């Protein structure tokens, strides 16, 4: 059961669709759609259970976006590791 294998993911479930499905019976591979609420920022979104539990599963899109913006802010201008991965476009 999801509550045993992925307790942090299970804790973010606010509602299950369809409502007739008991959230305690959800498995990590379930295709059921649930309403998730991020424990960090409170952002709510709908998504399938399997998309959260598979390898590289999706977490909160708002937190992911903020984290990536913070990484880019910390990159020094002209950082070779960043510019080397982006080839210049030829006109």
Short description:
The chain is an alpha+beta fold and 91 residues long. It contains five helices and three strands; from the N terminus they run H-H-E-E-E-H-H-H. The protein has a three-stranded antiparallel beta sheet.
Give your account of this protein's structure.
The structure is a single chain. With 91 residues, the protein is an alpha+beta fold. Helix content is 35%, strand content 16%. It contains five helices and three strands. The longest helix is centred in the last third of the chain and has 14 residues, at 61-74.
Give helix and strand order, one letter per element, not per position: HHEEEHHH
Global mean pLDDT: 83
The percent of residues in helical segments reads 25-40%
Helix and strand content put the structural class at alpha+beta
What is the spatial order of strands in the main beta sheet?
1-2-3
């Amino acid at each position: 059961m999801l509550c045993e294998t992925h307790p942090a993911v299970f804790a973010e479930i606010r509602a299950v669709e369809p409502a007739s499905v008991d959230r305690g019976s959800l498995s990590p591979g379930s295709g059921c759609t649930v309403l998730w609420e991020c424990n960090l920022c409170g952002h709510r979104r709908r998504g399938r259970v399997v998309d959260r539990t598979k390898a590289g599963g999706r977490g909160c899109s708002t937190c992911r976006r903020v984290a990536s913006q913070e990484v880019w802010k910390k990159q020094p201008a002209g950082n070779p590791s960043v510019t080397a991965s982006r080839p210049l476009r030829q006109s």
